[in-house]
Amino acid sequence: MIKDLSVMIAGKAGDGVLFTGNVLARLLKRHGWEVVTGRDFPSNIRGEPTRTTIRASLNENYGPGDLVNILLAFDCEAILDNLPLMAAGGTVLCDGEVVVTPPRDQAEGKTFHKFPLRAMAREKFGHEIFKNMIALGALTFLLDLETTLFEEIITEMFLRRKGEEVEKKNIQAAAYGYEKAREITLARERLPLARKEDGERLLLSGDEAIAFGALAAGCRFFAAYPICPASEISHWLARHMPQFNGVVIQTEDELAALNMALGAAYAGARAMTATSGPGASLMMEAFSLAGMAEIPIVIAHIQRLGPATGIPTKTQQGDILQWVFGSHGEFARIILAPGTLSECFELTTEAFNLAEKYQCPVVLLTELDMGQDYRTAPRFDLSRVRIDRGKLLTQEQLLGIQDFKRYEFTFDGISPRALPSSRKGLHMVESLEHDESGYRDESESNRMRMMEKRMKKLKKASKDLPRARVWESRKAGAGLITTGSTLGPVLEAAAELRKKHVQAKCLQLRTLWPFPVHAVKRFLDECDRVFVIENNCSAELATLIRSQVIPLPEMVSILRCGTRSFRPREVVEQVEKAVR
Amino acid sequence: MIKDLSVMIAGKAGDGVLFTGNVLARLLKRHGWEVVTGRDFPSNIRGEPTRTTIRASLNENYGPGDLVNILLAFDCEAILDNLPLMAAGGTVLCDGEVVVTPPRDQAEGKTFHKFPLRAMAREKFGHEIFKNMIALGALTFLLDLETTLFEEIITEMFLRRKGEEVEKKNIQAAAYGYEKAREITLARERLPLARKEDGERLLLSGDEAIAFGALAAGCRFFAAYPICPASEISHWLARHMPQFNGVVIQTEDELAALNMALGAAYAGARAMTATSGPGASLMMEAFSLAGMAEIPIVIAHIQRLGPATGIPTKTQQGDILQWVFGSHGEFARIILAPGTLSECFELTTEAFNLAEKYQCPVVLLTELDMGQDYRTAPRFDLSRVRIDRGKLLTQEQLLGIQDFKRYEFTFDGISPRALPSSRKGLHMVESLEHDESGYRDESESNRMRMMEKRMKKLKKASKDLPRARVWESRKAGAGLITTGSTLGPVLEAAAELRKKHVQAKCLQLRTLWPFPVHAVKRFLDECDRVFVIENNCSAELATLIRSQVIPLPEMVSILRCGTRSFRPREVVEQVEKAVR
Amino acid sequence: MKKKQTYHRAHPTWCPGCGLFGVFDALKRAAANMGLAPEDVVVVTGIGCHGRMNNYFYSYGFHGLHGRAMPVATGIKLVNPKLTVIGVSGDGDAYSIGLGHFLHAVRRNVDITYIVVNNRLYSLTQGQMSPTTMFGMVTISTPFGSKDFPIEGPVLALAARGTFVARGFSAEAGHLAFLIEKGMRHKGFAFIDVLSPCVTYNKLNTFEWYKKNTFMIEKEPDYSPGDKSKAWEILNRDDRIAVGLLYEEEKPSYEELILPDTDQPIAFVDLSVRRKELEIIMENFR
Amino acid sequence: MKKKQTYHRAHPTWCPGCGLFGVFDALKRAAANMGLAPEDVVVVTGIGCHGRMNNYFYSYGFHGLHGRAMPVATGIKLVNPKLTVIGVSGDGDAYSIGLGHFLHAVRRNVDITYIVVNNRLYSLTQGQMSPTTMFGMVTISTPFGSKDFPIEGPVLALAARGTFVARGFSAEAGHLAFLIEKGMRHKGFAFIDVLSPCVTYNKLNTFEWYKKNTFMIEKEPDYSPGDKSKAWEILNRDDRIAVGLLYEEEKPSYEELILPDTDQPIAFVDLSVRRKELEIIMENFR
Ligand SMILES: Cc1ncc(C[n+]2csc(CCOP(=O)(O)OP(=O)(O)O)c2C)c(N)n1
Ligand SMILES: Cc1ncc(C[n+]2csc(CCOP(=O)(O)OP(=O)(O)O)c2C)c(N)n1
Ligand code: SF4
Ligand code: SF4
Ligand SMILES: [Mg+2]
Ligand SMILES: [Mg+2]
To answer: Is pTM, for the whole model, over 0.95?
Structure first.
């Protein structure tokens, strides 16, 4: 029985590649499989090559795999680029005018079928749009999936939104594709998948998990400017916020987005914004204001490939140091980096507490492949969501206080907070250096105390932050340090390395700032060789570690400077080479 | 004979404190002294305490000193704050309604004179405005300066601009102050200064030196948005640019400033912008564009105290890491940090060459106290200014080329450049990832090569950058590493330490990025104990060093988190404490 | 009605004679007339001499970043619509770096009163040209005279579909107080450009100059602030500058349109986890 | 006169039927009519579907940052006034994130031709509301309908003292080419808002919708583009959208005013160190 496979859907922008892949992902998930999609898109609405790869496993599923077992292409030319990725024994189905002859060496061991999806759709169902359902039907056959489960999904998608007729026609198209595949493929090409209970599991994107986490955590004000790959957070919240009495504002730009969110947070909302690449640079000024005025704010940054406009549809981890060291002046900030879908949810809910407890900006730093790709995850546990608003005072508490000072010097640096309209809470929020009541004060003595007050909040916070996670507790030959969505390939690589008798353990940094010095030191002590694995060109994570941990053993950086995330093999090979 | 002294002028914003101090500085300079002013201003136009301290020495003058010898206050209250800074035997002259009794212990050994400047000005010259000239006259007496030299300066200031009458009246007021001081002060209070030839020396601010350097280096397009303490560069250039056929544009904001300068640089100008604090954060997005599109641009950043609006009139070194690690995505950048007035000029002229040779943004990072304070310096040597436009092709060269590619992959990563309007030079400037001709290309293979190409430019650049400077060549017990305007107090502290038999040597980093790893390593090898001295709260320079130099000995950070630069004594004390 | 003194926190350190004193006075008067509790008012200011207003006017205050007063004010108003939110900017703050935010706030018609203290210069930074500096004027940044054609806030606000467009003069604090009060009572975005001499740096647009070059539209016989083309015309007159309420129109305000429930300010909504509803939403992910 | 093909670099990958094809065609025609050498033209674009124009139109091109086309174009024009500088933005690029820059470019009257391809949506990012999206429209970012009141570029340009304000329609490529050519011949800032359907995301403002809801002012009997109040009036009409040259005025352009010598482009000025002059200036520092 097959327990792990990858299906690639390829075509041109506008072909419905993403849709097809996402439906297949859902279908596999309903069969109890762990699933992750891997989209690879151009930054153009139409006409350029596009693909998505669905990785599915019966048990653990860390992320995109090394090879593809089935390739379904809406355009036969697409197979040429993708053949090198195909596993031996793979099957290729393709549609298109052009007849393509793959190079002999790459074609060996693979089976090719011309599968005229468009023609079938046109002829049998009167419109090319049905090509995607036919394709999915064919895949359902190839993977020996339950047609009833597929029909269920089709009904969910179409019945309510498009009516019965559309639903039916789609079911028919799926059935047609199923039969056609049976006709043309060979029995040995079929991959009979093992099954499991779907259970309570979810299938969603990181952006959705963040949006849902925000809603659960009481975020009631979200302001953002559209940008790939963060917009989905905004779109999702726009649909659900009203039910919770909250509001989503599309601002005129990113400067407005963060400033507006700061105004909202000051006035009492749990507020958030989300952005990427150039938008993040535009937020640097107001980021500094949040630090100075100690306004709790959550900023989600879904990293795309830079610099400048870069490649908006490709993933990277090239913005780590900007958040740690960027913006003018010095102030307290917290930077969290979820590495799994569940953490997207959990760290988001936690981010709002941290922002309010430590009255500082909290950045939720993730990547395009985490934000936009779909993954399975256990159902989110809402009973574990806590709301802690820190030292926010109620009207009653304020009335009981003698001389409220918004920026009072306290032992832990955290001052009481009052919302505008509160009686006895009147104060200033000041972007200039200010005194305990918030009024401008440029004296050196005040400045020194205020800086110390604002900075020391992080000392207390360090104990309260998402801890670095260690996989495998024994002493190891190879220690792999990573963060964010690179975790998936690294964990898979570690498992692979262990199979090859390289004792590998992993450290996942979930808080990047304040930097978890002790956790890293402890990990370093337990490893013979250390590797820092990150999806960027200039070793940002390694640079950060070096700047914070002293003394430091030698570390080897494993980097990717391309347009996608790591494949496990790429990590395995480099570690092996160094260790052997 | 006196060889070193400090005079403080204090009052309220609007009193002409700065004017008075600057004239005194000029006067001392004309006597052959080395001079540096130290302004300490509120960020308000009127009514708040203000002071400036003129440090003057016959020989070396590194920066502000530890103590003040003469205090002239337009407002007797001002003396209270400043008494603790006064040297034993100091003299105080003050005007004002309020009678102030200084605390006994602080008053001891100092002489106080009530000096009714305003009343004298009103009575004798019909207007309070003459109070400053009277004050200067008094100081001329106290320091036993040449009245003829003073009259010369008055003539330079007033004759052409305001006419003979005004000039005369000012000379009279000065003479009056001179006589009055003679009347009321005691002989022992007079500090007869030694004299030297003024020679060809200059007295100017760092901002002026940068502006002059830009003009000399062929900068012909300057776009900026007003901001303290960088505006002076703009103001100076606005006056002088037209003569050189260049233009200064005041843009609508900092986003426009950098983008406009990039357009200008692309079209062929040597272009520049200047900013500070919040303005720098606003430039982060276009900074990234300059990196991606490989546009030569010079950005001067005169650091003020942050975060947010901070204290716009106070100095700090809190924006180092923003330029090294800030902005989204990864790209080549060069960061220079002048430590002396001469270097403000030299590094600016060099910045334009580096920008064009390596086709990347060059940041000139300095501080408010360097930018706005006045210092003496040897005359700038224009014969050493070279213009190197790198691989910029002329029309003739282009006509001789087969297939011009703006972003051609070359051995050193630097590609040929053509200006719009050139025949045979047509190309795209693209903020998206692009191919050799500049057109959008999102393929992984292209991306990898382009990133490598852009990044490797810095390798070649490293050999071409302003070298780190070492003071004192022998092996030392204490190695002091610093950058920017902190150099002054550090050098003075080192001299002081040597007097106290602590062998101290200094390393001044003049290029912060690409980081001069070897120079630092070599220096580290030559010192027993290492101190990193910087004017900020979070040890940015030390963090940078740690992130780049491996392995690293222990380093002690000496930081200032206040509102002014170091006084030498503050460095001496901390080093001594650690070394002894 | 309250006393004007209620809002007097401290005596300003603006240069003696500065137009900002008139604005400060008018603001206090308007607040007094409205009888506002200082705790129910938030004054959001820009960066500039005008930005010191928070130091003197007693209420909640937010002195944010240069040019960003409007986004901040919008965020505050949406989260707590019961607050009276007043913006105070300068001509540089509102018409230069903040121009985009200003006009977007206008078009959204958020219920904010926005006072732009227009001294036709960047005063706090020592007198550089601003977008309202007159053509040809010599300033520290334009030693050979300004070459930028000026723009006027009220014209732009009208073009961006402003529902309340006015111009005051800081020498006429009583009239200005009347405009501010009217602006606060206006449902939606009320914009008031205030002609306000900077006595230190602006030697051209002085009190006298304005007295000569302005006229009160309230005194024009047939002027009605309901007529948009009239407003446009009067704003485009070359000879003299119109002062008064130039245009007013009724239109739903942004918070009415976009908030699910204006009576339940987001600021005070109960945040306890609404598990039942969230569990149902989670079903969408299955 | 040149051939239209001169400027055709590649066939666009815009969605078939997109209004941008009309703009591309009009731009080529206008350039051909002007007989411009592709090397003497720089097209500066914003980020959005419109931003792909550089990939198809053959000339020097600068595809910069979202919303920042105008500062870049201004920098280019000032440094080399002999270039024909054309800006191409979208409604998001020009009227949302770039609104400030747009209006400041208008007021400065830099000699640039600025074409804003207005499809009333953020199309490249999948169809979110833009500042010209009609009130109430459902988009991916406004599932319950847009609550922002739209603004119109031409009205704002007029208010910012634009000297050339026009509106084209991408279905009328010939007329649009005429407007663009006229804009390029105009000395100063020429602004053209182009009504341009996004066939993929905008199901409301379609070609048919525009045909029904626009009219050509050139066909209005007594319309003259020299009359500002007329232009204002016609732009404020609620019933139908005016297409054509709405307003034109003669005024010195920015580069004439601010450059010491427009005949000596900064781009090609000799940079060798002018020691003598510099030594004299250095004397000021003594
Ligand atoms: C982003 C940013 N750029 C520049 C500055 C410097 N700055 C402070 S106030 C000001 C302009 C003030 O002009 P205006 O808004 O008209 O206020 P006024 O002082 O005239 O009241 C500027 C440019 C800043 N604080 N922030
Ligand atoms: C600073 C920044 N924010 C956001 C984006 C994402 N983005 C790309 S195109 C676009 C809007 C496009 O709308 P428009 O200008 O109308 O162009 P169209 O696609 O409709 O032609 C946005 C928001 C970006 N590239 N840069
Ligand atoms: S500088 Fe001008 S605007 Fe500022 S306080 Fe003084 S007079 Fe008023
Ligand atoms: S998405 Fe719309 S604007 Fe973009 S190319 Fe397609 S039709 Fe044109
Ligand atoms: Mg002003
Ligand atoms: Mg658009």
So the answer is: yes
